[in-house]
């Protein structure tokens, strides 16, 4: 089978790509700038391709690479923190484009090639805050809830065609996402102390195996 894994340069995406290769899959790994990856960061036998998920034109241009994909793992994403009162509009838009709109569009582009032969698997890698919201994480919680909502509804549409869509919601996993988290707290914010406490707890606690089980599963689970 041919698999596309986004976010294949680090974290859950990288581990999933490696696990799929070990299972004998042909894997295309999407990364924002694969040319900058050190040899040690590349998964052997994974074909890397550049894809900036925040650029709608780049996502559309990637359509040809999705025509023969049997498995799509949308693992790329970004975390965002800060009190709702102070989140910049452009930061919200960027997060939704990366964590929601891009994976949904990639799924749309991949579905015709899965539906016609009557087999396919899409895995949306979300996060536990979709079910257990965190204070000062409202934007991230919203994106993870949105991606789960898309998957839950689409599952009902796709199952008659033997195309299965699954959401995986890991808890705190040491993937490096904490180091890439964007945080927006204005100087003198009344929320500053609470945000600092929340981030300290997250970083202290900082699921490829679960993703792999969803890829191999014969029937679409409820979630």
Automatic annotation (TrEMBL):
Keywords: Oxidoreductase. One of its GO terms (cellular component) is membrane. GO terms for molecular function: oxidoreductase activity. Gene3D superfamilies: NAD(P)-binding Rossmann-like Domain. Signal peptide: none annotated. It comes from the Bacteria. Belongs to the short-chain dehydrogenases/reductases (SDR) family. This is Short-chain dehydrogenase.
């Amino acid at each position: 089978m041919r698999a596309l894994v986004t976010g294949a340069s680090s974290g859950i995406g990288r581990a999933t790509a490696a696990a799929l290769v070990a299972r004998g899959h042909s894997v295309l790994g999407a990364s924002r700038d694969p040319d900058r990856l050190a040899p040690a960061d590349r998964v052997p036998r994974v074909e890397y391709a550049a894809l900036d998920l925040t650029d709608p034109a780049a996502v559309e241009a990637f359509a040809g690479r999705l025509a023969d994909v049997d498995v799509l793992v949308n693992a790329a994403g970004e975390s965002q923190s800060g009190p709702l009162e102070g989140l910049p509009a452009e930061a919200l838009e960027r997060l939704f484009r990366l964590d929601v709109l891009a994976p949904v569009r990639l799924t749309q582009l991949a579905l015709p090639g899965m539906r016609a032969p009557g087999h396919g698997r899409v895995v949306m890698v979300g996060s536990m805050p979709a079910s257990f919201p965190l204070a000062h994480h409202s934007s991230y919680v919203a994106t993870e809830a949105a991606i789960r909502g898309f998957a839950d509804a689409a599952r009902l549409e796709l199952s008659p065609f033997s195309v299965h869509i699954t959401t995986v919601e890991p808890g705190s996993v040491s993937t490096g996402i904490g180091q890439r988290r964007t945080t927006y707290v204005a100087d003198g914010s009344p929320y500053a102390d609470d945000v600092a406490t929340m981030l300290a707890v997250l970083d202290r606690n900082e699921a490829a195996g679960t993703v792999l089980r969803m890829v191999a599963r014969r029937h679409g689970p409820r979630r």
